[in-house]
Amino acid sequence: MTPEKEKEMRGKGVNFIMQVGIMLKLPQLTLSTASVFFNRFLMRTSVIDKPGMKALHHYQIGATSLFLATKVEENCRRMKEIIIACCRVAQKNPNIVIDEQSKDYWRWRDTILYNEDILLEMLCFDLTIEAPHKILFDFLKYYSVEHNKKLRNAAWAFVNDSNLTQLCLLFNSRTIAAAALYCAAKHCGVAFADDDAHRPWWTAQCVALPDMRRACNYMARCYEHTPVRAGGDSIYVGLHTPEDGDPALAKTRLRRSRTPPSPTPADAKAERALSAAGSEKGGVKREREDGRNGDDNGSERRRESGDNRGHAAPARFDGEDPGQDHPGTEEREAKRAKLEAGAEPNGQDVKAEEIAPSQPPEESAPPKRGDDLSEEGELEE
């Protein structure tokens, strides 16, 4: 099978999944998961008939993938509804009546249930799919452009178109979401600012620029020559970009200047007010520190004066020679020496008098009563 024919067959199978999903009113994430299952199955299995074994039709693979995706994404539909939708899309007759008595009903039912086990085996039971739609929406919210309708629709169309190709087999979901945002931003003329570390937006989102450009170039080759509806414009026209191009020249990057911007008059006024308030606070703090230091110095001086209070120098009169002794100096020194020896100048022991307890005063006799006086008077007489 030629690559062109395989590409056409993959596109028909995914388109079948989309039409059946729309008829069943399934969400886009479920259809994206079914498309990934479909492409992974074709990567491991051939769709060419071999001797003794007939290959599966892409409609059969698509129906089985959609049935499995509804259970994985927990958007289950009844088997009867899925079979009726598959029959109407496959026969291109939306009004056909299918019931449980018809042969088409049982043929589609047996095909889906039998091929489900084969599909699980070919997928190695790896059913965890990270849809790029969620990551893309997180990017839009992170850069606050989720309300830009043109940018949002262009990025969403890129992700939906990638389901019709093998892009899900070549790159991970995060790279596909970043490539969708890059394509939409380039188409709409939107640029995203660098982060605080002066890194471009794709580096901040942990995506390599060559991989992102390679994904965009792959989608451009697939859809660049696709006819466009009247009045519309293709997002893939002019999308092709050299993979080794200079990142500084990317149109979707808004470089942040490393030099600080010149202050505005309002900023200068606010800065002066802050500096004035800071100087006032500094002055009050210095005054408090000076007062505290003055109190400490005063207390130290008082302590020094208290220590030297008992050894104060004798008073001097004006005009006296410091080297000349005062007339009463010798007498005072002699008295001090005698006091230290414990005796008064007249030879009496001072310490003994100080140590001896003072005698209590004599108790006065109580006043005599009149009877006593009379008795004494009589005795005297």
Automatic annotation (TrEMBL):
Residues 282-310, 317-341 have a biased composition (Basic and acidic residues). It comes from the Eukaryota. Gene3D superfamilies: Cyclin-like (1.10.472.10). Residues 239-381 are annotated as: Disordered. InterPro entries: Cyclin-like_dom, Cyclin-like_sf, Cyclin/Ssn8, Cyclin_N. The keyword tRNA-binding does not apply. Pfam families: Cyclin_N. Keywords: Cyclin. Residues 15-121, 138-221 form the Cyclin-like domain. Belongs to the cyclin family. Cyclin C subfamily. This is RNA polymerase II holoenzyme cyclin-like subunit. The lineage of its organism: Eukaryota, Fungi, Dikarya, Ascomycota, Pezizomycotina.
